[in-house]
Design a protein that fits this description.
By secondary structure, this protein is α+β, with helices and mostly antiparallel strands. It has 9 helices and 7 strands. A hairpin with a 2-residue loop joins strand 5 (about 260-270) and strand 6.
Length: about 300
């Protein structure tokens, strides 16, 4: 097993554990014939290596005929295999912690993961990896880097932990990025989003430009981020369409057990051909409520744009 293999296996095993934990509810009417048909479907799924489909089929078979011993035996065997794939009791504890993490119970998951990580057993790298994920979600950069570094020592987690480490390093107290690239635009008259009067008259005119973009993100606290982005599009021929955009964004985010609330404010200041073109304000709020298999999201935003040119 390599790279993503361990994570995929753990996620699959956690999903199978959910199926094993759910006892089949008896159907409204017994139907031994349909139960036998579902048992056959389960057997075929096992032969094809699809344990999840097999479990669902066996559960349906048992619901239709609680006396179906073949389906009960096969389901019990699959559940034992799912538990054994977690490498013993420590692996089972890791799967339980991952299930809590997926359900949004981060505090309980963190406590269980820390205990597993402290044991330094075979499941410890997985515990460090998911502790890093939880810390990254909370923008606790130092903890995320420390946990992911320890997870990266295991070959099964090395590739994915390395990718997440790059994200963690960019999520620090101060992050700066710079982009410079040439562009070919087949219709630059349509830029910016609301072109100046007369810019879109006549046939489209192809032009090249050089795009330079710089972003600076400061996070003084884990719940507060200040982001400033400056973009300069310098046209080669159509210099009246040279465009500079400066966007300042302030975001406050609070996360609870299963709730997440974010408030954001944006301020835009744009220049067109070196003169003031647009001032814009945007305020928004969003709310997210998570359940194990469902998430409810609501958001609202309001924007005001003031163009400096009467046209």
């Amino acid at each position: 097993m390599a790279t993503l293999g361990a994570v995929i296996l753990l996620a699959a095993a956690a999903a199978l554990a959910d199926l094993c934990a759910a006892a089949p509810e008896p159907a409204a009417a017994r139907d031994p014939a349909d139960s036998a048909a579902y048992t056959t479907i389960g057997d075929d799924a096992v032969a094809g290596g699809d344990a999840r489909t097999a479990m669902i089929a066996y559960q349906k078979a048992i619901a239709l005929d609680p006396d179906n011993a073949r389906a009960k035996t096969a389901l019990a065997a699959l559940c034992r295999d799912a538990a054994d794939s977690g490498e013993g009791s420590e692996g089972a504890a890791l799967l339980d912690a991952i299930t809590r993490y997926r359900a949004g119970e981060h505090a309980a998951a963190s406590a269980a993961l820390r205990e597993i990580a402290g044991s330094r057993g075979e499941a410890a790298p997985g515990a460090h990896f998911f502790l890093g994920l939880i810390a990254l979600d909370k923008h606790d950069t130092g903890t995320a880097i420390r946990e992911l570094e320890q997870a990266r020592e295991d070959p099964d987690y090395r590739a994915l932990a390395t990718s997440l480490l790059r994200l963690a390093h960019r999520d620090g107290a101060l992050a700066i990025s710079l982009l410079v690239e040439p562009e070919l635009d087949t219709n630059p008259q349509l830029l910016p989003g609301t072109p100046p009067s007369g810019a879109v008259t006549g046939a489209p005119s192809v032009d090249e430009d050089l795009l330079t973009a710089a972003t600076i993100t400061a996070r003084p606290w884990s719940w507060l981020a200040v982001h400033n982005a400056i973009a300069w599009r310098n046209q080669r021929r159509l210099s009246p369409l040279d465009f500079v955009s400066d966007t300042l964004r302030v975001t406050a985010e609070l996360a609870g057990h299963r709730d997440r609330v974010a408030i954001r404010y944006d301020f835009d200041y744009d220049l067109l051909d070196g003169t003031r073109y647009l001032l814009a304000h945007r305020a928004g709020a969003s709310y997210r409520r998570e359940w194990p298999r469902l998430a409810l999201v609501a958001s609202y935003s309001l924007r005001r744009r003031d163009f400096a040119r009467d046209a």
